Each structure stands twice: as C-alpha cells, then as structure tokens.
C-alpha cells in the first residue's frame, strides 16, 4: 500500500529544531514526509538535515525543479499538511492567501486536512491580528493548535510555547485518519474532565479511586484533532503528557473540580464529565497524620456528600444549546443503573461502562454503551479509548448541529 503523504512545513522560529522529532515520529510510523521549510527556517535547521531525515530533497522557492511544478504538485498530492512551528507570519499569509514561496503555494493548492502548530511570544499570539487570522483559518476548516504555556526564548514565560512533538504527532495521526471530515468541531469550545478526585483525610492519606484519566485525555486529544478549543480539567493525572493544543487545568478534590468545570462551562458548547468524582469526602481533616493506637480500633471516619457536578451543570445549562455528557462506571445491572442515572442527572448523553479489578481503569482500551436522553443506545465495542472518544464526539456534534 502507498504510504500516506505528509507535507511538513517548517517556519522561522527557534522551535524549528523540535520539528525534527515530529518528522521522526511521522517517518517511523510509516508516513512519506516531504519537508518544505521557509527560507527563515533554514537559519535554525539546515536543508541537509531535513533532506537526510525525510529522504526527499528540500527546497524553499518555487523555482527549483520547475519541470515538476512543485508549487502545485506537492499540495495536490498531500494527504495532510502540518506546519510546525507556525509563526505569526505564516498564519497571516495563509489567512490572506499570499503565496510568495514554496510553502505558501503548497498551502493554497492543498485539498487535504491542514494543521498549524503555532509557536511565538505571548504578545504576538495574543495580538488581535493573529487572533483574527487564527479565527479565519479555523472557520475555513484548518486545525490551529493552541500553543502551550511555558518557557519561551530568553527569560520569558507564557502562552506561545511549541507543544510536545509527540502530542502533535498524535493529533496529526487522528486528523489524517478522519480525512476531510476531521474539523467538524471547528469554532467550538468544549470542556472535558478527566482523572479521579482525591479527598484528603490527613496530610498523607486520601479517599480516591482507580481512574487513570486516559479516557478523558483521549476525549481531549480527539476533540482537538477535530478542531475544537479544548479545556481539560485534570484531577490527579500525573504522568500523562498534556495533549497538544489543549488547555489543562489541574485540580485535586471534587470541590476544586467543580469550581474549574463551572468556570470553563460558562463559555462552552459542550461539557464531557469523564472524571471519576468522589461521591463523599471526610467531614473533618486531620492536620497531623492519624496515628494508630495499640489495642484500640480506629475512630470511625464521618463522611459528607460532595456536590453533584453533572446534575448541577445539566440543570443550569449556562449556554443555550449546550450539550452535557456524563460517565457512569457500574459493576452490575449496567444498563438499568445507567438509565436511572441518566434520568436523575438530566444530561443529554451518558457513557455507561462496566468497571472492576481489571476492567477499564488504567487500561488503554474501553467498552461502553452511550445512552441518550431520547432513548437511544449506541454500543461501542471493546477497543482503543480514542474509538469511544470519537463516538462520543460524533453524537455531540450531531446535537450541536
């Protein structure tokens, strides 16, 4: 079978060297990659490096190999174009249809999914001109990843950092798999909760659960690949890398998760509550470690109910037409309990799965049934968690449309 053809556009930013890792991920996973740098990009990484890593010649101008008409053919034959890093300059040129080098010509002739991974200083990213250009590109169906927050060049820190190349690769892989249907969530803001809350007993102990956060992260990655702006409220998901283009809000307890979700949901088109939220928390917190006493049983731990976040946001609906999705982990009578919970919570969709010692929690796979408030049932067979994530977003997109 022919390898999927990917064009990797590289522009003139200090993060250009990180694109070498993205190129490696793409080539080693079986993609045929043609690197098209700008002239400025070659100040950071030379043409010989790109040619050696990709196995293809590298040019920046339309005048090279003119008999092959590269400024037309490269874009025409591509299955995916990804520009990483994408400077403010290339975003402006792409938004306005300028074509003064090989990369901008390629962008104009491409009829495949296009992904931009911006990297620049915070002030440049936040400038109204850049934001308007990003909005224009997203409106046309391009996937423009939100930059990460962190150390920039020099001593500066803020939003504008190049996302993890491995995470950009995962987003590109998902975008390529969906083809031209990929950006159906473009222009939408979605909120996803992930992980498991922990309710502290004392400075060293807590009440918690086995949730790893992997399903929530799969939902966030998939939504970003489909063009959405994603806020991920992550409860105790240490060890999971931040998905590319996703704003991650770390929390610990159910109360903290509630505050973060309600704040983000105020401007969201959809909220997917995949986190495992503790139903109860200790009534009191011991400031010092609770000691065991010889010959004495421990004191009973009094519990109080945590807020029901799913029911609260389902009832309030801060935005008209907002779609709310809940998750229900059950150990028996899975569908019956799921239907009861769907009615009680008042959400639009409820993802019901069976959990246990070796089921779902911590696994890379999942199996579920998505119940809808109108009585529908959508079974999702055992498989990768991103497959369940795609099914959830398919159902959400139908309701948003």
From TrEMBL:
Binds 1 FMN per subunit. Gene3D superfamilies: CoaB-like (3.40.50.10300), Flavin prenyltransferase-like (3.40.50.1950). GO terms for biological process: coenzyme A biosynthetic process; pantothenate catabolic process. Residues 190-401 are annotated as: Phosphopantothenate--cysteine ligase. It catalyses: (R)-4'-phosphopantothenate + L-cysteine + CTP = N-[(R)-4-phosphopantothenoyl]-L-cysteine + CMP + diphosphate + H(+); N-[(R)-4-phosphopantothenoyl]-L-cysteine + H(+) = (R)-4'-phosphopantetheine + CO2. Its EC number is 4.1.1.36, 6.3.2.5. CTP binds at residues 279, 289, 307-310, 327, 341, 345. Its cofactor is FMN; Mg(2+). Residues 1-189 are annotated as: Phosphopantothenoylcysteine decarboxylase. GO terms for cellular component: phosphopantothenoylcysteine decarboxylase complex. In the N-terminal section; belongs to the HFCD (homo-oligomeric flavin containing Cys decarboxylase) superfamily. This is Coenzyme A biosynthesis bifunctional protein CoaBC. It comes from Streptomyces jeddahensis.
């Amino acid at each position: 079978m022919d390898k999927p053809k990917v064009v990797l556009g590289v522009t003139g930013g200090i993060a250009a060297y990180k694109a070498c890792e993205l190129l490696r991920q793409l080539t080693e996973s079986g993609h045929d990659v043609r690197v098209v740098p700008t002239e400025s990009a070659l100040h950071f990484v030379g043409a010989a490096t790109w040619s050696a890593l990709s196995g293809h010649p590298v040019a920046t101008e339309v005048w090279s190999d003119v008999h092959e008409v590269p400024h037309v053919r490269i874009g025409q034959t591509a299955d995916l174009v990804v520009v990483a890093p994408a400077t403010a300059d290339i975003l402006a040129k792409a938004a306005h249809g300028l074509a003064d080098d090989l990369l901008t010509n390629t962008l104009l002739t491409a009829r495949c999914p296009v992904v931009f991974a911006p990297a620049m200083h915070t002030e440049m990213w936040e400038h109204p001109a850049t934001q308007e250009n990003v909005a224009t590109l997203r409106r046309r169906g391009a996937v423009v990843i939100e930059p990460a927050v962190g150390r920039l060049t020099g001593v500066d820190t803020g939003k504008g950092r190049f996302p993890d190349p491995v995470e950009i690769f995962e987003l590109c892989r998902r975008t390529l798999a969906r083809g031209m249907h990929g950006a159906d969530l473009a222009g939408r803001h979605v909120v996803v909760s992930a992980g498991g809350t922990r309710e502290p007993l004392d400075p060293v102990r807590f009440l918690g659960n086995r949730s790893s956060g992997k399903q929530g992260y799969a939902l966030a990655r998939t939504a970003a690949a489909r063009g959405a702006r994603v806020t991920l409220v992550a409860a105790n998901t240490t060890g999971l890398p931040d998905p590319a283009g996703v704003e991650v809000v770390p929390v610990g307890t159910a109360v903290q998760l509630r505050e973060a979700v309600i704040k983000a949901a105020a401007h969201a088109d959809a909220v997917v509550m995949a986190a495992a939220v503790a139903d109860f928390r200790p009534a009191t917190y011991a400031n010092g470690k609770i000691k065991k006493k010889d010959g004495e049983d421990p004191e009973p731990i009094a519990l109080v109910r945590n807020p029901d976040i799913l029911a609260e946001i389902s009832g309030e609906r801060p935005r008209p037409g907002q779609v709310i999705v809940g998750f229900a982990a059950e150990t028996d009578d899975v569908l019956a309990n799921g239907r009861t919970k769907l009615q009680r919570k008042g959400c639009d969709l409820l993802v019901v799965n069976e959990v246990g010692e070796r089921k779902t929690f911590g696994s890379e796979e999942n199996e579920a049934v998505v119940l809808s408030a109108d009585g529908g049932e959508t079974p999702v067979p055992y498989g990768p968690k991103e497959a369940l994530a795609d099914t959830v977003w398919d159902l959400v997109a139908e309701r948003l449309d």
